[in-house]
Amino acid sequence: MRKILVCSLVLCVLASSCFAAEINLAKALDTGEAVRQTIIPIVDGQALKVDWYKAPYVANPNRPEDQLINIYVPENVQEKAPILFVINNGGWFMDDYAATVGDRDGIAIRDGENFQTDIDVGSDLSQGRRQFSAMALKRGFIVVSYGARGRNNGVIGHSPATATDTKAAIRYLRANKAFLKHADTDKIFANGTSGGGAMTSLIAASGNSPDFFEYLYEIGAAGISKTDDGKFVSDPEIGDNIFAGLAYCPITDLGNADAAYEFTYNSTRAKLFEAGELDYSDAGATKEAIMYKSGALRARYMDYVNSLNLNRKDGTKLTADNLEGEIIKLMKAEIEETIKELGVEKMREDIASSKWHGNNWLVLNDDGSYEYDFEAHKYFVAMNTKLKIAPAFSNSGLYEPQQQNEDNLFGTREQPYSPFEFLSWNYDTVKNTVGKDDTGLDWDEYMKTDAGKFLAKQIKMTSPFDYLTKDTNVDTAPNFYVRWGMKDRDSSFALETVFYHELLNCKSIKNLNFEFAWLFPHSGNYDAKEAFEWVDSILK
Known about the structure:
By secondary structure, the protein is α/β, with parallel strands linked by helices. 35% of the residues lie in helices and 14% in strands. The protein is built from 17 helices and 15 strands. The strands form four sheets. The chain has a nine-stranded mixed sheet, with helices on both faces. It has a two-stranded antiparallel sheet with strand order 2-3. Helix 6 (254-274) crosses helix 7 (287-307) and helix 6 (254-274) packs across helix 10 (374-384). The longest helix is centred in the middle third of the chain and has 22 residues, at 320-341. The protein is globular, with a radius of gyration of 23 Å. The two termini are 40 Å apart. The model is unreliable at 1-22 and 112-126 (pLDDT under 50).
């Protein structure tokens, strides 16, 4: 078995109770010395001394310039400090450490009730993330961020590379918990948006899953060893499970995301085409071709939803026939909450400030009553941000020029990409060893082969869904906080509603806070005050 080396610690205790000495964090994996410096961010107008440690978090990195971790310890650190674990991923691309972190000397971080407050800060955290980090530091939390491989790193970034690196960074914290005297590694809160929201959801759902052990061992992650008979095992004291996930607009369930998109927007596409408001001729795609693909994918999603065996809140089965009704219930719940919190005048202003606000999708009456039209709502969303092409997430071999997609997240080390659902596979036209055109096998036939089973595992390891309700050999986080904007067209309301039901049906989850967020586009961390009230409530 591979040995994990233990480091020594020199600790100088100050009145502020902060770490004030060099902590040899990296030595626990024998990967070199941790680098420490002091930074002084501005939080609510007050200077806050923060000790910043950075080090490699794996013993055998294949992108050592990116597989690095940052640990920020404020001078007001709690004695048993929760950890805010910041996942900076976007679109499943790599988290370039240099671009993500930058130079933090003299940074200024502010928090407050308004997430749009001008924040004078550079480096890795977007406006919302900066506020999250500031609020965490102000509470005496430890804040952690990291770099990781992703799908723009070529074949080494194929699934499950990004998830593996994320889990390895969490394991690194646990391997060093004896030396992070103030850190409570049982109280890790992961937070991310978009691809980071998907990663947050996956990590929260799949804690300590053996699916990842081989890949963790390959990069030298803490707590993973290989037995003489070739099995990979995890040290029970050094896991990658977390306490809570705060996920914003998670781009998840990629294997079914194309189908979910068309379940949601098939009728909207038809109306937009009829009105002359939708055109994909720049990709060489006709209305007829798009609507054919959309219809085929929609039908596939109906079969998929019916196969899930999920219960609704009232105990009855979730089906393709009642899924739209469940979406509407969640939308109405958010509208009613927003009427109470903001009032109808502010909501009318929000709608009117949109790029396109017609179609009367939401009529707000002065007495607080309202009329909501889901079909008109989808049209409103599509008129504010053009719908993705069909299929939306897997289309590399279908259009010229190529559209935005996630195909290069998948494939073997010999394949630059792989289609990852039936339609994109069956209609792929690029000569590169994948697709029906190159293998002679349609999707269902291919998925029965060893190569197809490998692809299926890659797809599984990008989504929380199977880990939530099918895979019992995991330590799922007991707490989930999920937000998806009511003006977000980057994935679909259907997929997010199914995700809600997956969470609802997971017996390991004790505290679920899920909402469609009032009129937000594809974005995150816009409700930091509300989110941290939730964090505080589950820490009591």
